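Can you give me the bound-state structure? Components:
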Amino acid sequence: MKYVDEYRDGRLARSLAAAIARAVDPSADYHFMEFCGGHTHAISRYGLEDVLPTNVRMIHGPGCPVCVLPVGRLDAALRLAGRPEVTLCTYGDLMRVPASHGMTLLRAKAAGADIRIVYSTLDAVRIAEAEPDREVVFFAIGFETTAPPTALAIRLAAAKRLTNFAVFCNHVLTPPAIQNILESPDVRALGRVRVDGFIGPAHVSTVIGTEPYAFFAEEFEKPVVVAGFEPLDVMQAILMLIAQVNEGRHEVENQYVRAVRRDGNSKAKADVAEIFELRKSFEWRGLGVVPYSGLRLKEAYAAYDAERRFGIAYVPAADNPACECGAILRGVKKPTECKLFGTACTPDTPMGSCMVSAEGACAAHWTYGRFRDRQRRAP
Amino acid sequence: MSPKIFRRRLDIRNGRIDLSHGSGGRAMTQLIADIFHDALDNEWLRKGNDQAAFEVSGGRMVLSTDGYVISPLFFPGGDIGSLAVHGTINDVAMAGARPLYLSASFIIEEGFALAHLKRIADSMGAAARAAGVLVIAGDTKVVERGKADGVFISTTGIGIVPLGLELSAEKARPGDRVILSGTIGDHGVAVMSKRQNLTFETAIVSDSAPLHGLVAAVVDACGPALRVMRDPTRGGLAATLNELAQQSRVGFRIDEEALPVKPEVAAACELLGLDPLYVANEGKLVAVVAADAANAVLAAMRADPLGSEAAIIGEVVADDQRLVQATTAFGGGRIVDWLSGEQLPRIC
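Here's the bound-state model for the whole set.
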């Protein structure tokens, strides 16, 4: 398959692995955070841990949209879906994320709520058009990558003068989250998490470009390499990060040159800017309340804002106290350090969001990598 | 053909199923005669008894039953009728059996077009004839609009296994080889390409096919070295290997690069975020055989048109955790876990 197979080539991978092995200083340790769940998934899916030197450690970051959605926002979506006039349209990966009281969208649907899985924001607009008697609400989540399609859906609904379409907006932004991690006591004061560099987002960067990361590289003296989601992309980015660390550099480099430009996609950015504005603060699972990290609809589009239209007030809700998703999303703990991992919490019976999404650190480790835990335990 | 008691012929072109077609009255008898008997004709159906009596030769009998609720009813490479024949024939055949007879039960939604029902029944008849298997008993029920989705079909099949051949899911042993009869994911992707909200252009057709000929070739080539066969339908090859790992209390190690996947299927899976290992098949089988018989089985499969792309994809290993593991193209390892949740409802 053109444009895919060349980035998964086993022969190239072996030569890159050899180059990484030559590049690392055997007396040093390298701790890199891959921000995105897409990278986490690629690392686990292709078994990259097996081909990296043991002194290169990857820390999974919070860049999984499903994982960082806090319980309170899910509870709000369930309240919306509970209204008899509402049809809630959602991407499929949200269906099994646990909300308060063991509730999920999947269970609510089974109990009679009108919840439909869509593959595109435009499907939700189509449903609103076809079923004028229903109040169709699109459950919008995701980073800068998925905000433009949500903006497009709102513009389309406005052009069609649909009065029964609204968006429950949970879009979040990457740079404030990275800054939050770098400024967190775990990283700065307590030194519980060592991050020597970042693998920067792939798809997000196609929209926002590489420029927004320059601040982190400079202010926090951490190298950032923006990388694609294919396994060879990740390996090449690791090699580039190792070179920066060895040479004492901290720059923003772009491995994903086939898709990412310095300034990103100005059309997509303009679409988002037209419809959305920054929230003063937004709660993330794991990171807590992060200032100016979320989007909401501008006043001019208030008619399409489900929160305003249905008077949805945000009520924070606690995670399951035994669930370590928060610490895992901050890179403080590994999935295997959670008591629930692999016992009460598996992809079939997820207790926390990191076990639900294929991009979540727990699901990725359970699904692809748990055989290594036994190998480590064995003498 | 309808006897003369029916005053007016069924209007197959424009007619629709109504509740009278399931009431036990004349309308139902006419429906059965004009659509089902016409399509599936054989001496048992013609007798019109509530059961079919037949003789069997020596050997062990195999029985299998399966319900079909696929959506959409017509998909590239088949429809619910042919699928209901192939699926049950294959379940019977995986025991090493020669399938003999099927029964078919239809649950039809009020309002369903008679033209569609006829197309499905004709397709069923054609599939059964091509496979040399007869549908000798059936049932028809009609439910109110909204209580079903067009038509649901259940088929039950029986077959005979030669004496001495006892395939079973607990028989895989470390060292055995795993042989797959062809490309994976074709059926699931073909069905998905026609789903509402997901329609995409593709030339992929379902692999739906009866596998008992291929099974007979494998049995001939392998004999007692054959441990177990299974057709990887819902949940794909990943589900089948995990089931066998549990039942045989072993692990599997497969080589990802050895898995045959059509480029179009790989591309569609890439687009939809699916792994072909988890996508349904309806015309493939996986055989676990003793290592020294692997090459003979591979050759026998490849000599059959339905097994021309067969490949040895891995082996059975000792593993008290019963994991299915894959060696990736990168030389790394990963687990091929059970599918969690629902990848795609109503795929068969």
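A couple of observations. The mean pLDDT of chain B is 93. Chain B has two domains: 19-161, 177-335.
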